[in-house]
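Here is the promised in-class demo. Please do not try to memorize the tokens; focus on the logic of going from shape to residues.
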């Protein structure tokens, strides 16, 4: 049940378990994140992603597509994916970057969407989840780690009780 927070401290896991036992996890998340994002269409999601990219990663590779994807399942611990596709067109090599987000975040708090978009944008520059990667995530969103933790709590809630937002 707590697989999404396995790497966290025992005391933190105990606090989360207490919220679950008291059926307060949903209330905690709703109180902390009452505002849902408005980027529910793929065009709006693309524009939002490009705004962030242009603000923080101007010189990175262009993005050709940003979509909500029904095929991304949190059971695989994936919230989004970044793919890099190379194709030969004539005598030129064309490269495309695509970002796909789990459809469960089509209706979610603004902070959750920003965390996932930040994560996928950081992969434009850094492929591995290393120190440089997380430093870039924090550059884009200073509260990245808190939002990531709370997204993990939301995934626990989803698994136990279904959708919250």
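The designed amino acids, position by position:
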């Amino acid at each position: 049940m707590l697989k999404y927070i396995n790497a966290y401290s025992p005391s933190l896991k105990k606090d989360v378990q207490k919220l679950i036992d008291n059926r307060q996890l949903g209330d905690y998340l709703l109180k902390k994140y009452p505002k849902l994002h408005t980027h529910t269409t793929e065009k709006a999601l693309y524009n939002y992603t490009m705004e962030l990219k242009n603000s923080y990663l101007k010189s990175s590779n262009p993005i050709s597509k940003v979509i909500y994807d029904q095929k991304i399942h949190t059971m695989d611990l994936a919230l989004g994916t970044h793919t890099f596709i190379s194709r030969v067109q004539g005598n030129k090599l064309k490269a495309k970057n695509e970002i796909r987000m789990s459809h469960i975040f089509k209706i979610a708090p603004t902070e959750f969407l920003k965390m996932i978009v930040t994560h996928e944008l950081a992969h434009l520059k850094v492929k591995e989840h290393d120190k440089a990667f997380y430093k870039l995530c924090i550059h884009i969103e200073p509260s990245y780690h808190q939002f990531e933790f709370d997204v993990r709590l939301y995934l626990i809630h989803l698994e136990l009780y279904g959708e919250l937002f």
